[in-house]
Each structure stands twice: as structure tokens, then as C-alpha cells.
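sorry for the late reply, my laptop died twice this morning and i had to redo everyting from scratch. anyway the thing you sent over, i finally got around to it. pasting the sequence first so we're on the same page, its 291 residues, then the predicted structure underneath. double check i copied it right bc i was rushing
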Amino acid sequence: MKFIILTGMSGAGKSTAIKMMEDIGFYCVDNLPILLLEKFVELTTLQSTELQKVAVGIDIRSGQAFGELRDVLDRMKDNGVQYEILYLDAEDSVLVKRYKETRRNHPLSGGERVDKGIAEERKRIAFLKERADYIIDTSQLLTRELKGELDKIFVQHQDYKNLFITVLSFGFKYGIPVDSDLVFDVRFLPNPYYVEGLRAKTGNDKEIQDYVLQFSEAHVFLDKLEDMLNFLIPNYITEGKNQLVISIGCTGGKHRSVTLANELYKRLSEQKEYGLKIEHRDIGKDALRGK
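ok and here's the structure:
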């Protein structure tokens, strides 16, 4: 039997994930009292049960009993119980925003600000993140992307490396994305903005792609960037990094950066060791401004 303990930060998407686990064939129980966990494991592992896949949601809502979880997990391990921990996380700023949008109180905030509760929760559940078999950072994930990550782990049984990469194009005139880990400036390439008939098109259009990629410098840049990432990514995975944002910028974020971000995404897509998505933050801003 496959037994998954689903946990992580409040607001990181555990309730959504537990529903997704149910959709892919897991028998799911959310917010199981910690004092019942060992008994529940005993019941689900009886030879008479037909359960093959079980997921249990456990988090800080367990109150004072949460402090006993470490000992419970140790006893389960000593008794030969095979389990895996799936840990959902998100950046503090994202968690605060989600709580404000839903107008809910954090379980540990009491009468104080939400960020105080988040900080306290991080301290209390740090041991779970250290023990986790899978860590998914949902800061940048859409619901369908989270579903895709769970599908990779529990349906396709891919070798999951706990890293999700976002390739992000942007325009320097609109500011560098604050969540960037790596930033690359491609304004050294000729700008199709000044070429007759190309200004209104974007890096998603073949005409722009052909123009940008006709220059050997674009291919040299991509080759060197890919080579550097092939070195960095395994080391990021070893270090335990969960989220990597690679930002590629040009002046307006519409032509050169979009083209090269798309090309980098294609190259990285050949790898199976991490989640991957692409975003074009500023691709339509010139049009909105009437330029």
C-alpha cells in the first residue's frame, strides 16, 4: 500500500491537493487527529482492506497535538510503516496575499498580523519539510500546474527532484521581476521594434522569431545559457531549492526576450527532472498603452 502524508504551510494549497489526490485514486482523509494516525495506519494496512493508495492531510490545525507528530512518525518508522511525506510550500508574500484575498485568519495569528502566524508556523513544521520526500512550491503554480506535478509523482511515477522552473520574459522599462533568481539582459541583440512591419508583432510570431534568431549572437547566448543551467540546476536540486525563476529581459518584453525565453523553454523541456513553465509578463503592455 502507498501511504502519503500531505502537509505543509497553511494557504499553500493542501485542501486543493487532497481533492486532486482523491481524483487520481487515493483514499483521502483531511485533518486527521494526530492521536489517531497510528490507529488509522493499522486499520488501512489490514490484509482484509482493499485500500491500495491512502493520503492523509495533517497540518497545524491539529493544535497542541501537533507537537507529538514527530514522535508518532518516529514510532511508525521504527515499526516498519512505509510512508512518504508530500510538503506544499509557498513564499510568505504569496501566503499573505492569499489570506487577504480570502479574508481568512491564519490558524496561529490570533489577534496579530497574518505574517506573524506564518513565521510561527514555519518554525513549528520545519521538521516536516526536512523529512519530506516531495516538496512542491505553489507560489507560481496555477491549479492545473499543481495537478500536473502531482500527476508526475503519483501517476507517471517520474523521478521527482522537487524543483519547479519558471522561464519568464519581461521588459526592463517595466521593472525587473522581484521574484527572479537569475536575470539575463538580451538588449545586446538588434531590436525588431525598429523594423518596418515588425513592431506590432511579438516573439510568439514566426516573423519576430526569424528576425531575432538570424543573428549568430542569439544562438551563442542560448548555448552558453543552456550550458550554465545544466551546471546550476543539479546543484540547486542538491541544495534543496524548490523554485527557480529565470528571467530574460529586453526593453519592452515583447520581441527579443519572448523569442529567447521560448527557445530556452524548448531546450529545458527535454529534461524530465523538474517541473517547467513559461510566462511572458509584459508581452501585451505596449498594446495596452496604445503604443
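The chain has two domains: 2-154, 164-288.
thats about all i looked at so far, will dig more tmrw
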